[in-house]
Amino acid sequence: MRVSFKVAAALMTAAVLVVPAALTAAPASAQVSRAAISTTARAAAPTAKLSADRRYLTVNLDRRFRGATVTVRVKLRSTYVTLGKLRLNRNGDGRLKVPAARVRSMKAKLPTRIIKAGKTIGSASMSKAAPVKPAPQPPILPAPVPPALVLPAPVPPAPVLPAPTTPAVPEVAAQDFMGSGDQVVPLAAVAARSFMATVTGAGTSNFIVWALDSTGQKSDLIVNEIGNFPSATMLVDVPRGETIDGFQVTASGTTWTLQVRPLSTATSWTAGQTNGQGSTVLAVGEVTRVSALSLSNIGSSNFIVWAVDAAGHEFDLLVNEIGNYSGTVVMPVGTRYLSIESVGGSWAASRS
Length: 352
Known about the structure:
Blueprint: H1 21-24, E1 47-50, E2 56-60, E3 69-76, E4 79-87, E5 93-97, E6 111-116, E7 119-125, E8 127-128, E9 175-180, E10 183-191, E11 195-202, E12 206-213, E13 218-226, E14 229-236, E15 244-250, E16 255-262, E17 267-268, E18 273-277, E19 280-283, E20 291-298, E21 302-308, E22 314-322, E23 325-331, E24 337-342, E25 346-351
Parallel strand pairs: 1-8, 17-19
Antiparallel strand pairs: 1-2, 2-5, 3-4, 3-6, 6-7, 9-16, 10-15, 11-14, 11-16, 12-13, 12-15, 18-25, 19-24, 20-23, 20-25, 21-22, 21-24
């Protein structure tokens, strides 16, 4: 789970990162978003590539911008127009579908800009992927006349062996932790599959929780708040082939609790309406056809909704807003869970 600023991005012709003045002037005790980036960071040679059919635009920044939501703008004639918003993945990359009304206007070498929080963080000259050329076909030759066939002696069929099966990755065991102040919390049994973490904190200073991989490196930012943090359940997305071995808690003067639970224990919601407060994970059953999902949120902070597959990996960002929200989105085929982040807010959902 990651809490991020709602940001905007647009495409330009040179790579520059500018962080809003509100962040650079804030005192050390000011609240910092979980997606905040160093004020001295600069995007390294960003690129913007237009697909051959002009319907998709791929943006490449770098890993320092992972999880950031950006707005893509492109210069048509003498005016920059907004193509849309996208959230960058863990490598700082993203793919934006070009609005149908803009497809015919798109072409290579258009000046483009990438904007975050109202400030240009990167620029590039749009390039265009070359269309795929069909492979040359060999000439059709007349079929040679085969010689008379000599049939071999019949061979008994080989035994059919069952296909090898990959053992299922076990879910994480339920584990509870509590404490105060800064601590490193190792898991009694490491997690090789995505799971849920329910966190609370009571205090007045910074409260930060990171998930740690098998090498002790920070893998997923779970919480980054100041002061009291009400109970919230977040998805911890474990990358394929990796494990989460523990947590690092930074909480000077704060008492906290942390509960680890497998995804199989997520609240079930398969039809009708549901609602709640704060962040949670919902098990929505197996979505086998495109479905409409109506969502609303009342609050002043981030409202983020991800579609999650059966393995517990986030694969489609459905909503990424700040403050109040109301709208209907597509719940794509393959969705098994919904990860809802509404820090300090109240949300409602209905499906059809």
